[in-house]
Amino acid sequence: MVSLVLTSSDIFRALFLALSVVWLLSDLAFAKHAGITRHYKFDIKMQSVTRLCQTKNIVTVNGQFPGPRIIAREGDRLLIKVVNHVKYNVTIHWHGIRQIRSGWADGPAYVTQCPIQTGQSYVYNFTLTGQRGTLFWHAHISWLRATLYGPIVILPKKHASYPFPHPYKEVPIVFGEWWKADTETIINQAMATGGAPNISDAFTINGLPGPSYNCSAKDTFKLKVKAGKNYLLRLVNAALNDELFFRVANHTLTVVEADAVYVKPFKTDIVLITPGQTTNVLLRAKSKTPSAKFAMSARPYATGPATFDNTTTIGILEYEKSASASKSNHKNLPLLKAKLPQFNDSSYAMKFQRKFRSLATAKFPAKVPKSVDRRFFFTVGLGILPCSKNQTCQGPNNTRPAAAVNNVSFVQPNIALLQAHFFNKSKGVYTTNFPTNPPFKFNYTGTPPKNIMLSSGTKLVALPFNISVELVMQDTSILGAESHPLHLHGFNFFVLGQGVGNFDPKKDPAKFNLVDPAERNTVGVPAGGWVAIRFLADNPGVWFMHCHLEVHTSWGLKMAWVVNDGKGRKQKLPPPPADLPKC
């Protein structure tokens, strides 16, 4: 008879095995409802590209411009390996992806990661949780996103349908901005001299400027449609510094989604889209093939005092010819133009933004926080900063233009904020004393104060896990009132209300929409006005918030929120991946 003596390590092993089986079974049960894992490889490399009769070397993903489209389903996991073959430091941001407990994959340089250096690589690993629609990816360091960008298409889960008529075809329409000169040189020179960076030379639709520019008729995006069919246009504004009006001549569009959230459908001739925003629209082709081609035009909505690129990019909507139409007359069809609003039509902009409403149905609820734990009032706008002693700047008394939130112009640290936070090494990297309100009150949209000097620092707001936040963002008239598209990483927020002039804390909250407000990741703070948003701080990590006009980001119109861990396991940020780049 053999006596069986179990050591404590045997018991531990058996227990571990049993637990592993339980975990595996629960994981398999979960996998039945979860998505699949999709792998992408992004090789960052230089590519020679010709536009506007000039050839230049640009930074691309896989030699493509615009970059490759990412297609996945809600619930899928993405593993995207980014390999840097260029001389610049690189990071990629997956704009609008919630990144729930995956902040290490968010991408803004020196916020959630150190950049990927030349010859290095990093795998961005995240899951698409509770989101479906159009988003986009772009570089998130210096001005590299001028050419490093592409669409993200998140389809609904298998067998789930759209809450609008199923389109015959889906087409990404990605707006970009093109400079003849090298964009890194442009921003570096501007920062060195304290001047404003040079404006762009063209706008593009899917990388093509179109016939309104010199020798660019051959570089025109063409959309061929069939009479009577429905098309879903997935609009993305990947331009650096310009909000855009978009119109298809003689066609009405139906807006069905914004920032990857379904909205109550509404009809419009013109769409306004800020950098960082995405908008899905249905275009119904005419029932009979018309004897014309139609311009698809985009040009800026510009409110500030600075000069801007006032050109128009044009794509062409063409109908597939019917059997009866001969070849010759199809080629010579007239091109009908699209009339767009005035460049500074802020009342159109305000009216348009107010049309967005969440579906707020049982299937797609609007989970607006009904009570508020913490309130913030942020001024956003411009000012000046002194230049260093060895710098000669163009502003009065050796100053340069700068931008700030609550008078704090953000100073980028030289190690990533998320690492400093996670390893409790914030000392000397950042402080959590970001002001809740402006340091001094003034007539924000009236005559500016005499002293327009800003302060600077790496200041953050620390939030306990799962508290509700209400934030009012107020534009200022310092150096000119201007619309600022503010983007918040790691969250969607609800747009409760907006108005012209100074926010009135006594009267304006009574008008807030708490029933079906739009849910977005990027919102335009109106020129000379305010916008109020709410969000739930349910995602632990460090989350960047900044103006999506790249010139203002470079000037310091940015800050970050630290959301601390909650008590439960699923309320904590996991440790960083082993291949997280080092500074």
UniProtKB/TrEMBL annotation:
<dbReference type="InterPro" id="IPR008972">
    <property type="entry name" value="Cupredoxin"/>
</dbReference>
<keyword id="KW-0439">Lignin degradation</keyword>
<keyword id="KW-0052">Apoplast</keyword>
<protein>
    <recommendedName>
        <fullName>Laccase</fullName>
        <ecNumber>1.10.3.2</ecNumber>
    </recommendedName>
</protein>
<dbReference type="InterPro" id="IPR034289">
    <property type="entry name" value="CuRO_3_LCC"/>
</dbReference>
<comment type="similarity">
    <text>Belongs to the multicopper oxidase family.</text>
</comment>
<keyword id="KW-0677">Repeat</keyword>
<dbReference type="Pfam" id="PF00394">
    <property type="entry name" value="Cu-oxidase"/>
</dbReference>
<feature type="domain" description="Plastocyanin-like">
    <location>
        <begin position="434"/>
        <end position="566"/>
    </location>
</feature>
<keyword id="KW-0560">Oxidoreductase</keyword>
<keyword id="KW-0479">Metal-binding</keyword>
<dbReference type="Pfam" id="PF07732">
    <property type="entry name" value="Cu-oxidase_3"/>
</dbReference>
<dbReference type="InterPro" id="IPR034288">
    <property type="entry name" value="CuRO_1_LCC"/>
</dbReference>
<dbReference type="GO" id="GO:0048046">
    <property type="term" value="C:apoplast"/>
</dbReference>
<dbReference type="InterPro" id="IPR001117">
    <property type="entry name" value="Cu-oxidase_2nd"/>
</dbReference>
<dbReference type="GO" id="GO:0016491">
    <property type="term" value="F:oxidoreductase activity"/>
</dbReference>
<dbReference type="GO" id="GO:0046274">
    <property type="term" value="P:lignin catabolic process"/>
</dbReference>
<dbReference type="InterPro" id="IPR045087">
    <property type="entry name" value="Cu-oxidase_fam"/>
</dbReference>
<keyword id="KW-0964">Secreted</keyword>
<dbReference type="InterPro" id="IPR017761">
    <property type="entry name" value="Laccase"/>
</dbReference>
<feature type="domain" description="Plastocyanin-like">
    <location>
        <begin position="170"/>
        <end position="321"/>
    </location>
</feature>
<comment type="function">
    <text>Lignin degradation and detoxification of lignin-derived products.</text>
</comment>
<keyword id="KW-0186">Copper</keyword>
<feature type="domain" description="Plastocyanin-like">
    <location>
        <begin position="44"/>
        <end position="158"/>
    </location>
</feature>
<dbReference type="GO" id="GO:0052716">
    <property type="term" value="F:hydroquinone:oxygen oxidoreductase activity"/>
</dbReference>
<dbReference type="InterPro" id="IPR011706">
    <property type="entry name" value="Cu-oxidase_C"/>
</dbReference>
<dbReference type="GO" id="GO:0005507">
    <property type="term" value="F:copper ion binding"/>
</dbReference>
<dbReference type="InterPro" id="IPR033138">
    <property type="entry name" value="Cu_oxidase_CS"/>
</dbReference>
<dbReference type="InterPro" id="IPR034285">
    <property type="entry name" value="CuRO_2_LCC"/>
</dbReference>
<dbReference type="InterPro" id="IPR002355">
    <property type="entry name" value="Cu_oxidase_Cu_BS"/>
</dbReference>
<dbReference type="InterPro" id="IPR011707">
    <property type="entry name" value="Cu-oxidase-like_N"/>
</dbReference>
<dbReference type="Pfam" id="PF07731">
    <property type="entry name" value="Cu-oxidase_2"/>
</dbReference>
<keyword id="KW-0325">Glycoprotein</keyword>
